[in-house]
Amino acid sequence: MSIPVLKFDAVIVGAGGAGLRSAIQLSEAGLKTAVLSKVFPTRSHTVAAQGGVAASLGNSEEDHWTWHMYDTVKGSDWLGDQDAIEFMCKKANEVVVELEHYGMPFDRTDNGKIYQRPFGGHMSNFGEKPVRRSCAAADRTGHAMLHAMYQRNVKANTQFFVEWMALDLIRDEEGHVLGVTAMEMETGQIVIFHARATIFATGGAGRIFYSSTNAFINTGDGLGMAARAGIPLEDMEFWQFHPTGVAGAGVLITEGVRGEGGILRNSSKERFMERYAPNAKDLASRDVVSRAMATEIKEGRGCGVNKDYVLLDITHLDPATIMKRLPGIHEIGLQFAGVDCLKEPLPVVPTCHYQMGGIPTHYSGRVVMPKDGDMNSVVPGFYAGGECACASVHGANRLGTNSLLDLLVFGKSAGDSAVEDLKAGRAHRELPKDVADRTLARISALDNRKGGANVHETRLAMQRTMQDHAGVFRFGDMLKQGVAKILEVEKAARQLEIKDKSMAWNTARTEALEMENLIEVAKATMVSAEARKESRGAHVRDDAPDSAEFPNGRNDKEWLKHTLFSPVDNSISYKPVNMQPLTVEAVALKTRSY
Amino acid sequence: MSKRMVQFSIYRYDPDKDDAPYMQDISVELEPTDRKLLDALTKLKAKDDAISYRRSCREGVCGSDAMNINGKNGLACLTDIDSLKQPIVLRPLPGLPVIRDLIVDMTQFFKQYHSIKPYLINNDPPPERERLQSPEDREELNGLYECILCACCSTSCPSFWWNPDKFVGPAGLLAAYRFLADTRDQATNERLDNLEDPYRLFRCHSIMNCVDVCPKGLNPTKAIGKIKDMMVRRAV
Question: Is the confidence metric ipTM above 0.95 for this complex?
């Protein structure tokens, strides 16, 4: 069967924040670039980001990128690579100002500068007190940002392939990446995108959990493709549970609510964060707040008939401020909780939100993996940025507003690195003979299988397993069982059956293909979590409790290292954390408290 | 809310096997936690995986799941099921070619959006820091920049139905005014020239369907009025 081949200088998979930021670099450099997206670019999940993007602009009070760097290292529970963190924090002002120049409608201070608000874990003077670092457009920062970057790409004449789903990564025998196979959703046609550079910006996979703030499209497609092509996944045990998802619905309520003065309360109206984080209180880091909430609920101080949520209270704030700074939250409260937050507190629970791990990358955006004894050998022709990548700047726990910064900085650097490599002469390499075999086999199996597993039920089984066995609090025996269970689900996920056989906009087929990606992520997560026998950041287990020897259960002697999950044989290896920043002194290991 | 059976009548069309579209009667049992129409569609799709629609964020910010619900355009994820009269009649957005079931071809819609040059034009060399803008000037963009491009407005507009190739439509014109209203943009005259045409702007007859259906509560008619004012002021 002959499959059409489209040749480009570069192919970018994903048109959310990271993909659009990369595309600007490539298009403006005059390279022939294709951007593939399952959805129209402004429908990508970056659109749902609310509270802001971090940059030490210092528009309202003194701030420094070194303070931001300190907060990010501490937030990561020292698992973040300090060279990448320095790179990101130093670049923040530049990329945020660029966005403003693209036309992003940031809110403004009285003197016309970009408005900044406080956010969890962002402090002045190396951890002293909350600082106004989050650059915001009301509580719609992601929407404003995504549209501004799409618009800039329209100006730059970027070529989009809208509603195309990438299916498999093309690698040759020497390990070079040569592009992707992809499917046009409207027609079901399979096409090969042959490129000199391939950039993944496919976002996260929050849909592996039952309760998630993530969009339906967040199915870890980039991770699934990388895994099938034999590329390991880094630090997959670290998932962020955002403290404030709407109870029941899962819809995100920005931390910006607490940045503007919102307070978390338990059933006796107590501001319980004062007990868990006496200094930062409600603006402690997300893992800390989520655990505090889960503890309150576990110990019977939750609210409602089932005592299964806590309250986020902003009724003491000026209604005019709420309507100006948090209008979207007011809307969400009415829509998804039936609550007018001007008058009543919002019911919230920790909800799966962000994947700290991902495809291992250098801070230049180049994908790296172990080869011939080098733990960080570059995979030629392959780049990644944003949530699907692990640079690693977020380590064991990401600070709020650092995700939008990550996708700007590393979207841009992945684009720049691709431009640099192409200008240095990287050519199209010959496509392997079996280039599309894997893809065609997957599609044909789906179309022909009878008596296979139901997609909806398989997905639910995976989501329930992840939720029950790898949640906010983790337990050694539950993780062990979780691994066995998820391997069972994997068997079903390899035998999916769809009833819909149409070639036209077949969403049943899309969902089955997404499920094949989700299960790679779920498996990597469960196996990596079971293997890490300490507590760190968002990964907290009962058998690694707080002790004098291991404060917060963190064991730097044995576990200050990145996990690498190999999808080839489900095995785990480790690589050292880079504790050496580029130009400044390292942030020394310390017990983490807020 | 409790468990309940909900009746639907859904527009179905698969170009691969159907000669013509038809309405399918189908019902589904919903859990107490199913509040929104999109929750019901998810349940329906679990029953019949061929039912086709777009969806993504499920919280009203991505603009994917616009459809015609009991005769009125809206987002499935923001529509309360229990507010709807049964059987709930679901059709694709009117006026655009149907690809399959509730999925329409939005090419024409985006073509019009792109035609207004939806990006900031400022030819001065960018300063080192942000361009300054007063809070009052920034306020002018409220009610404009929040558009999610769901197309509820343009596909409820009779003028867009008749002339989708010539009339920019409410969504595109709202975007046009978003840049006209931005103190940082320098292309006012060029933008107005681009709209000075019997069709592109002036086919708007203030029917205001767009305002009625906008799931974000925006007012394209008002923005269009402001563009018309700018045209007049420019002429005198």
Answer: yes
How many residue contacts between A and B have a Cβ separation below 8 Å? Answer: 149
Contact A326, A318 (CB under 8 A): no
Buried b (16+ CB within 10 A) or exposed e, A105-143: bbbbbeebbbbbbbbbbbbbeebeebbbbbbbbbbbbbb
> Do residue A47 and residue B64 have CB atoms under 8 angstroms apart?
no
Write out pLDDT tens, residues B122-135: 999 999 999 999 99
Cα distances (Å, whole numbers) of residue A564 to A87, A232, A379, A529, A576: 23, 6, 15, 11, 11
Residue in the block written with tokens 């409602």: A304
pLDDT in tens, A314-372: 999 999 999 999 999 999 999 999 999 999 999 999 999 999 999 999 999 999 999 99
Say whether A502 and B50 touch across the interface (CB within 8 A): yes
Closest approach of A38 to chain B, Cα-based (Å): 10
pLDDT recorded at residue B2? 83
Q: Give the other-Cβ count within 10 Å of A423's Cβ.
A: 10
- Rounded Cα–Cα distance for residues A538 and A558 (Å): 18
What pLDDT does residue A1 have? 58
How does residue B1 score in pLDDT terms, banded at 50, 70 and 90?
low
Amino acid at B82: D
Query: What is each CA distance from A45 to A146, A186, A261, in whole angstroms?
Result: 9, 21, 26
DSSP calls for A59-78: SSS---HHHHHHHHHHHTTT
Decide: residue A590, CB within 10 A, 0-12 exposed, 13-18 middle, 19+ buried: exposed
Q: Does A106 lie at the interface with B, CB-CB under 8 angstroms?
A: yes
Do the chains contact at B15 and A504, CB–CB below 8 Å? yes
Q: Closest Cα to residue A6, out of A193, A217, A223, A209?
A: A193
By C-alpha distance, the chain A residue nearest B118 is A151
- Do residues A540 and A238 touch, judged by C-beta distance below 8 A? no
Smallest Cβ–Cβ distance between A215 and the set B45, B58, B182 belongs to B58
Q: How far is the C-alpha of A49 from the C-alpha of A282, rounded, in Å?
A: 20
| Element at A481 (helix H, strand E) | helix A476-493
Residues of chain A positioned with their CB less than 8 A from the CB of B146: 140, 143
CA–CA separation, B64 and B201 (whole Å): 26
Name the 3-class secondary structure at A5.
strand
Coil vs helix vs strand at A234 = strand
CA pair distance A332, A347, nearest whole angstrom: 12
CA distance B51 to A260: 43
DSSP state of B123: -
Contact B138 A107 (CB under 8 A): yes
The one-letter amino acid code at B218 reads L
pLDDT in tens, A24-81: 999 999 999 999 999 999 999 999 999 999 999 999 999 999 999 999 999 999 999 9
pLDDT tens per residue, range B178-212: 999 999 999 999 999 999 999 999 999 999 999 99
Q: A533 at the B interface (CB within 8 A)? A: no
Q: Sorting pLDDT into bands at 50, 70 and 90, what band is A388?
A: very high
Measured between alpha carbons, how far is B209 from A576 in angstroms, rounded to an integer?
Answer: 60
Nearest by CB to residue B114, choosing from A39, A106, A154, is A154
Give dist(CA A565, CA A570) in Å, integer. 7
Q: Tell me how close the Cα of A182 comes to any Cα of chain B, in angstroms.
A: 19
